[in-house]
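Re: that chain you flagged

S.,

Sorry for the slow reply, it's been a week of failed gels. I finally had a moment to sit down with the sequence you sent. For the record, here it is as I used it:
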Amino acid sequence: MSRRRSNRPLVPNAGAALDQFKADVMRREGYPAARPEEVKYEVAKSLGIPLNSRYNGQLNTEDAGRIGGQIGGSMVREMVRLAQQKLAGSRPPGGAR
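Prediction finished late last night. Pasting the structure tokens below so you have them in one place:
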């Protein structure tokens, strides 16, 4: 089975909400992005990785992964925290499952 990767969200029209979530999470991490699409440039700058808005052919995969990992890792941690919080609030009284 072939695995196709895409930058498109599975849920139609969820892109704007995901971008806003990314910006909010990264703001809490100390990256004051004015717009969600600027987050990757702020992360790259803080890591000392030259990233620009046009051509990044000089960027090696390790550096690209460091940028994406910083952003994606923070987003995943926040999603897990939110899910745990929701699950903890939805348990019946007495701790029964």
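What I noticed first: The CA atoms of residues 12 and 18 lie 11 Å apart.

Talk soon,
D.
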